[in-house]
Amino acid sequence: MIIYSNDVTGFRDDVDNNKITDKLKGSIKEVMGRSPSNSEIASWNNSLRAMESPIRIAGLPGDCGILIEYNLPSTSKRIDFIITGKDAAGNKNFLIIELKQWSEVERTEVGEIFIGHVGPKDKVRTYTGGGMRDVVHPCYQAWSYKSYLLDMNEAATSENIRLHSCAYLHNYKEIDPDPLKSDRFSRLIEDTPLFLRDDVTKLQDFLRKYVGQGNGMDILYEVSKGRIKPTRKLIDYVSEIMDGNDAFKLLDGQKVAHAKIVHAASQSEKTTVIVNGGPGTGKSVVAINALSALLRDGKNVRFVAPNAAFRGAVERGLGKRRADRGRLKAVISGSGGFWDAEAETFDSIIVDEAHRLKRKGAYMYRGESQVRDVIAASRTNVFFVDDDQMIRSTDEGSVEKIISVAKELGSRIVYVRLDAQFRCGGAEGFINWMESALQIRDTGNFEGWDKEDFDFRIFNDPNAMSEMIEKRRLEGYKARVLAGYAWKWTNKGNPDANVDDIVIEEHNFFRPWNSRSRSQEWPIDDSMEDQIGCVHTVQGLEFDYVGVILGNDLRFNPETSEIYASKEDYYDAEGKKGVKDGETLTRYIKNIYRILLSRGTKGCYIFCRNPELEKHLKARSGLI
To answer: Residues 257, 339: one domain?
Structure first.
């Protein structure tokens, strides 16, 4: 998606005549169907004039190419500024420039993404969006965009075009010591130079070195119109990290599902593959293996996971080095970016946790139906689904919906059922018992499970339960405390879990929800173990042990022996939208607790706010 394209002469004229911002505003409205934000307009007014000056003083030829706000295809990311041209040796160069208005920066220990082996952290803290926030280093941003194009744009490799990246902070004056230039960023800055307010001469030299001979418009066209498809470099990389990784070995029915996916993708006929399975059946293992296999076959494939925390877990599982995870983002994405994709842009799209695909009205989604988006945008589409993990009225990725849309769009349907559990027998028995005890379905498992294989306990005090989870964590197990949406979540001024929203006064229990800004780190960062995970953070993840707080949103009526939802005690505003009857709300809230209670592979501990529900579960489990 191109917002602004011009040569240097045209760009300078637009800046000099104060037309550049109006042109960008009009183009954003036309191309993206929305008006730009005030912060976007302010950045154009400041940064583009700051960029025009070194271009003019450097004397760059008028036929260098310029792209502004270039949207990386199939992503929501936009590159601030691109300039193209040839160097003195006649090489074609494509230069990515990240522009920042920052005037002050602080060091922070938050963050995990970095380039090469710089160090464990790469984030800094700066004033943006109305306050000081943790953000990635601007050089990392520029490098990641370059890396994406090298991995996904055929023209960037086949046309002998050389990609370069840098960052220009035109308001920032260097301090001593400077957090932006700490040792942990040395490798990063060596690859992607950093230019500050007083480095204008160095920036001019940098521009002249790579694009000083002009002739950039053809280069601009070749890359901006280049086919987006995984390059051999990325294919070899994913294959390398998959080979020999026991965590992704396929067993039994998983192999059958995998074979059907690969076969469907090898055919010319439009096909929809539905893989249906509950917790512990290995859906994600099949999905990741399918991604690797289709990449090896040279397919333009995208792995989609609606849940950001789950996407982070997949990237960590594949990329053991933090530096590698950035590259995986080229083929791993969320589900909201396909609404305007051209028909069959992709050979294949693989959707894990497809039950969380959204329909019109979902937060931040601009299309009509994500199921339709995925099927329309790919020749072969694969949905890994569990209908009992749908928890909002805007969740539409059911088996029924997928089949309906596939038929409408003329896609052949292949259905695969995963039944075999790949957790211990006790965990499988517990899930069956839990579904029966919560009156989700009659599983025939009334009495329980093998207690030696799966540790289930009901606590009378949430503090005692949390202490047991902490004990398990210190023993080396992955363990976290989770809760249903029975407490409000403070949004304003609470990006880093600073407010104790989960309050159980009778037990003197006060805890925050997991950090919104660091939700992908919460499952693995032990410094965040006191934060309580919500369903949107943990869906798709697994732990060894979980402690689950069942709030007053789920209750038991001893007179009717029915479990029901209390709307007044359920605080997910998005979850309440479109829910008009108690039966539907009860189903959604039961599904939430089914997800939370099934995250543990070795054990699950619970605390119930509702005394009647506690008695019911104790009776069903034989604990009384």
So the answer is: yes
